[in-house]
């Protein structure tokens, strides 16, 4: 399989798109898909199918340089880096999407990842006012109440205070509510990195917020909401209902995949709110206020709301509903030969575990149950796969996830009937990848 030509846009191209030439973006994607740039693009160069190599192949007949020389010493890179052959696998911005890179998004390269964990350096990023690398010795986290009776002893914690408390580690996905947002009206972007890459999954380590609230003598009967506040310049504040706090799910986290959070992801402290859209996972967390009603802040009253078909806005629809996507084969890739492929992808639900994923290769006319790879965890990505023999004919690949509540991922027809087509947030429609006779894979929509 030839990798998607993700890195064909030159800095000059990106500059032009940034100046408003958005039509140029689509033209560039199409040209690059047609051209033969792919071998240099994905990092993993286009390989001939295994069965055609062998006799006369110098890479099996001759001694290799790496087998006949001294390798690099230990600790040559004290903090390890990916192979230079993988340098095409990076998070990317969608050119022209935002005016300023400090208030923007970078998308995770889902097409090149295995299993369910996102390497920390490839975790998607969404900042409203740029990221900061905060000095942990100067970071403070405060808990107080909207009224004095809500919190008996308001406290300010240092990182040392928090690191002394008993930790828990849990694996969860985080998805921005705007993921797949560009596709509400029609096909907009060519690859899974841009359609679904505001999605990542990590093992987070931290202290349940409940533990800290109890430490401050919060009145957990009177409390109905908490307000989480970030320490960056964006005045990011979100109301979180008390139920997931009381259940112990919401974490004040400092760890991600076994190390401290990356600065881009909120170092040294972020809120983890499993199943809820990314905006509530407040980064550089500096304060939690206990209250008895939602706060209607700017990031929940006028942003991250759903524009409904009747023109009204729906607020506080925070849970990321059941969704899935095939990550390989996916848009921009090319099937180089007929025969065996593994269809593989990711499924997730903000309401619990994934129960089943069905895959179709004929645009939803027939479905086959995919294999779910363990572990299958609540509010976590689940990897699915299905063996597929491509006969060289056009195909329409789709996945449809069902979660443990019985919720079935909708098609575009169903979703638009309920939600219209002018929204930005919470698009969990079934994704279709069209395989053409020449093996090219393209993003299409089926109602
Ligand atoms: N927290 C603060 N303080 N500032 C921000 O800009 N962005 C939010 C959320 N928390 C943001 C924030 C949004 S919109 C999302 S989707 C997630 O962080 C993204 O988290 P990530 O950058 O770790 O992927």
From TrEMBL:
Annotated Oxidoreductase molybdopterin-binding domain residues: 129-295
Keyword terms of this UniProt record: Metal-binding, Molybdenum, Oxidoreductase
Record-linked SUPFAM superfamilies: E set domains (SSF81296), Oxidoreductase molybdopterin-binding domain (SSF56524)
Residue ranges occupied by any Moybdenum cofactor oxidoreductase dimerisation domain in the UniProt entry: 322-432
GO biological process terms on file: sulfur compound metabolic process
InterPro entries xrefs: Ig_E-set, MoCF_OxRdtse_dimer, Mopterin_OxRdtase_euk, OxRdtase_Mopterin-bd_dom, OxRdtase_Mopterin-bd_sf, Sulfite_DH_SoxC, TAT_signal
Needed co-factor(s): Mo-molybdopterin
GO MF, one example: molybdenum ion binding
Coiled-coil ranges from the UniProt annotation: none
Keyword Amino-acid biosynthesis: no
Region (Disordered): 49-82
Pfam families named among the record's database cross-references: Mo-co_dimer, Oxidored_molyb
Protein name from the UniProt record: Sulfite dehydrogenase
Species this chain originates from: Azospirillum thiophilum
